[in-house]
Amino acid sequence: MSRDLNGARVLVTRPAHQAENLSRLIQARGGEAVRFPVLDIVARDNIDEVQDALKNLGKFQWVVFISPNAVNFALKANNGKIDRLKAVRFAAVGRATAQVLEAAGLTVDAVPEQGYTSEALLAMPQIQQIKGQSCLIVRGEGGREELANTLRSRGADVQYLEVYKRTIPSIDNSQVVQLLTQHRLDVITVTSGEALQNLLIMLGEKNHRLLLPIPLVVVSDRIGQLAAGMGFKRIAVTESPADTAILETVTIVCNGE
Fold first, then answer.
1. Do the strands 40-43 and 187-190 form a parallel or antiparallel pair, or are they unpaired?
2. Any idea which fold 42-166 has?
3. 245-252 long-range CB contacts below 8 Å, 24 or more apart?
4. What is the pLDDT of residues 82-95, one digit of tens each?
5. What is the dihedral of CA 97, 139, 230, 184, to 10 degrees?
6. Cα–Cα 20 to 30 A to 178, which of 58, 187, 212, 234?
7. Would you kindly state where each structural domain of the chain is located, as residue ranges?
8. How far apart are the first and last CA of the chain?
9. In this model, does residue 115 exceed pLDDT 80?
């Protein structure tokens, strides 16, 4: 089988500031990256709250960062620094998040070797016996409750620090609609459930009949199940959320492997 994308048009729905690497990889493999960001990720208007929380990390035994964005927006709100405290342990949901923490000079005490979900972190031995401990979860506005609910069921006191929010971008959809109507869009990539929902909203219900048959590449079984419930017909799940894994799955889909 060919490992080239042979000019396939791939819709990249990552936020604009996160789309460059995947787009470059697609183009290097002979595809055409069609950028259509379906999420904007921006700081919340709570800089004083974030700074206060980060100055008082010593009252927590665990600080859990949900994503690289959680680390980056926390750092941005606090003049680029998070203090290292011996009594505080840091956890990351996924290797990419851990790498951003380590780049900021922090030691990551718990990060799943396999998997990049809250469930994978919760399965780690370090997170089992936490009764009576205080945990701070640093994340975006809203999101899944599985991590906090499970930690509380294990006897931990859990608080949130929400440092960013997701919004729907106000952008022109005419290029993508034209590709849909001409049947010239070959693969769609989506990296979150919210992005999937926004994609349908931004392209309008009248275009769903053209959108749903196109092969869809997602980064988790959970998103795949959501997509199936929305009516997508051909769904492929990557091995991880990394751009390289997305590229490999896109290549497999385009070559009918």
1. unpaired
2. Rossmann fold (3.40.50)
3. 245/219, 246/22, 246/189, 246/191, 246/217, 246/219, 247/22, 247/25, 247/26, 247/29, 249/217, 250/5, 250/8, 250/10, 250/26, 250/31, 250/187, 250/189, 250/217, 251/3, 251/4, 251/5, 251/29
4. 988 888 999 999 88
5. -50
6. 234
7. 9-39+169-254, 42-166
8. 7
9. no
How far lies 141's CA from each of 61, 150, 166, 235, in Å?
A: 23, 19, 7, 28
Q: What is the pLDDT, as a whole number, of residue 73?
A: 95
* CA nearest to 176, candidates 158, 157, 203: 203
Helical packing angle, 193-203 and 174-181, nearest 10°: 80
Q: Classify domain 9-39+169-254 by CATH architecture.
A: 3-Layer(aba) Sandwich (3.40)
Structure tokens that stand for 146 in this block: 């599985």
